[in-house]
Write the structure tokens for this entry.
Amino acid sequence: MKILDASFVISAVRSEQYPTDGLPEIALAGRSNVGKSSLINKMMLRKNLARASSQPGKTQQLNYYLVNNEIYLVDFPGYGYAKVSKARREQFGQMVESYVREREVLRLQLLVVDVRHDPTKDDQLMYEWLKHYDIPMVVVATKADKIPRSRWDKHLKAIRTTLQMGASDKVVLFSSETGQGRDELWSIIYESISA
Ligand code: GDP
């Protein structure tokens, strides 16, 4: 995938700030520290455009990145950070919930998990909830470079089992270190926006 242009657009804290140009959006959810910013940077071939917030979970905003003037990558706040107050958690819920339910240009949701670990309770809730709203979704299992190749299959199976994924649901093995999975993920993204 040739990246001609990639830029940060806005940290939206209210829906009125979302872009109005009608371009397709690919959203990313995952727990804090799972590797979401690294993945976004790798997808865009930029080193530091997406940044993990220094206080994970504190900023409740949707970060918009525009790629090649044709697709937005929309980064949700990382969830599952223990120190976030209940009020913030509720705010997170409301913002993400109304985005997912109402955003017509949302074409695909990426749920980012760590390939080394079983998905958390929060991951499971997010998965079930996205399924409930019938949002096209791909699970991205990142940090693949951190375990030996011989164990990938076992871990991918564990993720499928824990999330109770259907046979036709996709998991993409990814590494922001090596770029593994990048081409596959871009293909899936392009398929979703041309459907
Ligand atoms: P975020 O909070 O989900 O945005 O997570 P970050 O992208 O900031 O990543 C959290 C930590 O994991 C950082 O130290 C990254 O360098 C590291 N990391 C993220 N993705 C990978 C990966 O694919 N491979 C390896 N080895 N480390 C990664």
Q: What stands out?
A: The longest helix spans residues 86-102. The chain has one domain: 6-194.
